[in-house]
Amino acid sequence: MNRLLKHFSLRRIAGTELRVVSDMESGLGPLTDIEEEVIEKYAATPRWRQEVVTLFVLKDLEPLVRQLSEGAAGRRSADLSALPPGGLAILGQRPIVNVYDLENPGSCHVFINQKAMEKEGYWDDREAVKGLLAHEHAHPLSECETTRSARRLQADLSTDGVRPLFPSQAQDKEWQAKVDRLLALAVDKLCLYAPREVFANDVTIQSNFTAPLLYLDKKNVLNAAKGVRSKGALRQRLQEEVERASLTPAGADLLLVIADMHGHLDLAMETASFYRQSKVTEARELEEMLFAEVMPYLEPPVAEAYPRLRDQYVQLPQDTSPEEFVQFEGALLDILAAVLKEKGLRLEYGLTVTPERSS
């Protein structure tokens, strides 16, 4: 990384070497303390195999994005396969991410993004930070047959019915590109990446981090509530496009649905894991907030899709082959397709099992 690093420390926690690296000179103590607490708790569980953890606390993740972008062509595929939905394009917006090599389970690199943490209200919230760190450390610990299968699955999407929603051929191409991009991100997050999120939540709960995870999820529900209640600004911008005749009313409705689907349906992964781990009280407590603070403000087809997605995630097995996983992914995509169909867009998809990559 080219940015000047101002801090480096080394310590050992329960047999794990923790390296802390930062481009900040101060304010690292609370974060380091929480990381030590999380490692110590995980180290007491049989599944912990991390011999070295490198914690990067950075003002933003631009150095990481740049380094991965420049080195992607020459790196092994396993090195980048654990990136979150959206890949490198979205990575810089993440508050925290665990980058690890599937071929080297003994180490991982956890990156904390100060700018994004402050934006989400996490930076000075100890319990939220604990929930985030516990969840990120759960990712390499939750790898299983299904996550390996998910990495080998490729979704090819095509849409029909867009043209009548937009007034002209030139504008149709512009809006089509926007619809395709948003749908690809939604499918990546809600379908292809979903097993990794669900299983990481499972491990977080199994490792006795239930309270901080629930706290974090509640905070995220409140953040989501702020977002949906301010949706009027998006609605107004789309209405202005309608008045300029660059967008039809039906097109505006479609874009609102896609925005809701992309922005809020991933909360089903959170509630599903509490149900999966028989934490029914916590699941219902979280859903009570969700149905009071978020669901009434979503477009109706999106709100109706939530319980169907949640129930699919609850049933997600850990030992699914790539060929078997195609059926599970198809069920998830059918739920999304049903939402879009109500708004005049037919989503068609093909699911392909790619060859297993050699290391």
Which key features would you list for this structure?
359 residues, alpha/beta, two-stranded antiparallel ribbon, globular, 2 domains, single chain
How do the strands and helices of this protein lay out in sequence?
Layout (H helix, E strand, L loop, with lengths): L6 E7 L2 E7 L6 H15 L8 E7 L3 H10 L5 H4 L7 H4 L4 E4 L7 E7 H7 L5 H16 L3 H7 L1 E8 L8 H24 L1 H13 L3 H20 L2 H12 L5 H16 L2 H10 L3 H14 L6 H15 L7 H20 L4 E8 L6
Word description of this protein:
This protein is an alpha/beta fold and 359 residues long. It folds into two domains: 7-141, no CATH class; 146-353, no CATH class. Helices cover 58% and strands 13% of the residues. It is built from 16 helices and seven strands. The strands form two sheets. It has a five-stranded mixed β-sheet with strand order 1-2-3-5-4. It has a two-stranded antiparallel sheet with strand order 6-7.
Low-pLDDT regions: 73-79
- Helices and strands: which structural class? alpha/beta
Global morphology: globular
Total discrete domains: 2
Report the count of strand segments. Answer: 7
SSE series: EEHEHHHEEHHHEHHHHHHHHHE
User: C-alpha Rg, in Å?
Assistant: 21 Å
Q: What is the number of helices?
A: 16
